[in-house]
Amino acid sequence: MPDYNPFGKPLSEVGPEDLYSMKIPEGYYFEYKRDFIDQKAVAKAISSFANTYGGLFFIGIEENEETNKPGDWFTLTSGDPQSYNEKIRSSVKENISPSPMYETHSFKGTNSSGDEGYVILVDVPESTQTPHINNDGRVYRRTGEGSDPYKVTSSPEVLDDLYRRRDEWQTRIDDFCNLDVGLTVGQSGEGQNQGWPFLELYAIPSTLDDPVCANVISELDRFQEIFESSEIHLLPDDSEIVQEGGRVRFGFTADSYRATSEGVVAQLWTAEDHQGNIDTAHTPLTFTFLVDGGLKIFLPIPTLSPPENPTLVWRSIDQAIHSQFDHIEFLDGLRLLGYIHTLLNSYLNLLSEYEWPTESGTINLRARFRNTYRTLLVFETDWYIDLIERYGAPVCYDEILDLPRLESMNYELDIDESNKFGSITVGTMNLFQAFGLPIDQSNNVFGEFSSYVIDQMFQETEFED
């Protein structure tokens, strides 16, 4: 991957004086615009860099028409960096598929008229998820000092190269989504054993293999703090509780924490032996946060036993499965929901803490449920009774469930700070659909969970002075 940085230092260390001294003409790796052009033009420039070899897109620099070099700087004199960054984000999200990675840097200085203004630098790396197609149906590439649509008739090998890059990216994802923990014979289901039902959950960042969160390795105490006490983003920032300093924090206290060369790991034993003691012989819940911002979770799925005195829920289940309780394993839906939500919430907070590029990066979820043959996901609530009576018991007869089933589908985890709870809600419901839980039940599922969280907030809320 070419190095197109002309400053001789990281872009995060570049200052206004560096921009003034830059005399590079617009070309293959550089483009200058005096003002914020329309969204489609911004998207065209960014996608062309991503589809080629990357480059720097400067908004707020006017080029000299004779030399194509910068002629004036800081020509953005209305608005502020935050508003410009939001325009860029909208341009990319609404006009390019898939959205490429990019990073913005803003600078404040004085232009030739003596007015204060801004320069927004958009750093677009060479993409691995090509081709990036604009909503006009075209694929743009850098050609000299411009962004031109690719022409199949003149350069068919270009499109082949772009798809090859995407295939290589897919191979890297497939390699990433593999379980890295050992299992006992009882857990794995080898031989005559049914095996424990468990979940492999993977969060795949667009920064895969790029150590953007490397500091976490040397900050094990900070990782432990976030893992054990992550703030739940449930209520709006302007709500009365939040305004008064109310905070609700959920997390797990792991049995062990360790750092490796690839990331940090938290492990929690959740299984018990026949005497009710913690069972350390089996592989525990394992949460691995990687230096590239990726996540791997191994989660034994909690189960339920029918109570001696059946409730209305269990009577409905009994009728639906014709009393064949011995042939079915019951999965605890609410506890599984609590595990997934708490772990993903900790994950999103870790991304924020270690300044993962949320502005332009994407996170996609993949999951694999194992040993799920003859299992039933159960919620001990009234709406679940109605679900059973209307549709019957959604018993799973798949030994392995891989999600999403199609490579063309993506379970993207929205990393917007203001929508963490909703993002995790959608991600979890996508997983639960594999067990026959209709998506239209999401309000019931998370209404119940939200009520629980809010109850905890009122009972255990700590208010800051």
From TrEMBL:
It comes from Haloterrigena alkaliphila. InterPro entries: Schlafen_AlbA_2_dom (IPR007421), Schlafen_AlbA_2_dom_sf (IPR038461). Pfam families: SLFN_AlbA_2. PANTHER family: GLPR-RELATED TRANSCRIPTIONAL REPRESSOR, SCHLAFEN ALBA-2 DOMAIN-CONTAINING PROTEIN. Residues 26-149 form the Schlafen AlbA-2 domain. The lineage of its organism: Archaea, Methanobacteriati, Methanobacteriota, Stenosarchaea group, Halobacteria. GO terms for molecular function: ATP binding. The keyword ATP-binding applies. Residues 131-152 are annotated as: Disordered. Keywords: ATP-binding, Nucleotide-binding. The keyword ATP-binding applies. This is ATP-binding protein.
